[in-house]
Amino acid sequence: MTQIILHHFDISPFAEKVRLAFGIKNLSWQSVQIPLIMPKPDLTALTGGYRKTPVMQIGADIYCDTQRIALELERRFPDNTLFPAGSKALSSAFSSWSDVAFFQPGAGLSMGTNEGLPEDLLNDRMQFFEFMDFDELPNQLTHLYSQFDAHLHLLEQMLAERGQFLSGSDAGWLDILAYFPVWMSQSNIADSAELLQPYPLLQAWQQRMVAIGHGTRSELSAAEALNIARETKPSVDLRVRATAFPKLRYGQTVTVCAADYGRDPVHGELIGLDQESISVRRNTEQLGDLVVHFPRIGYTVNSAE
User: Which fold has domain 5-80+217-303?
Assistant: First the structure.
């Protein structure tokens, strides 16, 4: 089964990454809208506890984190590559800049300058964004503006050096990584238009990114997605490589969690481990066997025995 299901919400900047990847690859996919805040019972029934947005489902295989999703899309659907000009490894390294240095000041400005945020959403994000001191946020806004602007300036320089897209003549995952904090700023940061005004190359590139679109989307209910997982068997063939760290054995009970924030642990049977990914099998009463996949970089895996 290759039916793509994305569990997301429309205002998620990280989900926008994957939607643009669908656009580059011209894929058809099904959208399951998830709650903005916890609890997310249908999502965590699939993941075993992981709550970050988005999550991609293909049958009974569940893919967590946009980095892992991008690699799986490329493996299953190699046409219209996400990594033109041999940029796969560079894209992986580039994510540390986009997901941390660029995203985090943007997230702080989104929380600190958007006066219309509901109280329950703010309370949820206060628990979720462990990198952010909400008590000090009002005093940090000037600094956060300076940092976000500095990264916009850096992106303008990259475009001056690289041309139409960061990946060359075609858009790729490098562009998506650089774009999603800019996309987030448009609806969440006060004075976002003023921030972008000094950067004409960035603004023109932004329009090219918008033109990519999101592929072909259709809607699916959470109940239908769960039923697909229940009626499908995981399809991937995996192994635990002897060269991977830590030294764990195939079939061992382990715990996996993000190393930065949203550290909700997922427990399962280790069936895949190498320098790129971690995969655990979960046997659930509700849905049967599921395999949950994570990237290796940025995630901890430890024995639970």
Answer: Glutaredoxin (3.40.30)
Average pLDDT (120-130) is: 91
Distance between CA atoms of 126 and 117, rounded to whole angstroms? 12
Q: Where in the chain is the domain with CATH 3.40.30.110?
A: 5-80+217-303
Q: Give residue 122's pLDDT band: very low, low, confident or very high (50, 70, 90).
A: confident
What are residue 127's phi and psi, to 5 degrees? -80, -30
Q: In what order do the strands lie in the sheet with 216-219?
A: 216-219, 28-33, 5-8, 55-58, 61-64, 288-295, 277-284, 266-273, 253-258, 299-303
End-to-end CA distance of the chain: 33
Over its C-alpha atoms, the chain yields an Rg (Å, rounded) of 19
Q: Which residues of 207-216 are buried (b: 16+ CB within 10 A; e: fewer)?
A: eebeebebbe
Range list for CATH 1.20.1050.10 in the chain: 88-211
Q: Are strands 266-273 and 277-284 parallel, antiparallel or unpaired?
A: antiparallel
Quick check: helix, strand or coil at residue 237? coil
Query: What pLDDT score does 262 carry?
Result: 93
Pick the CATH number of 88-211 from 3.30.750.24, 1.20.1050.10, 3.90.1150.10, 3.20.20.70: 1.20.1050.10
DSSP class of residue 240 equals: B
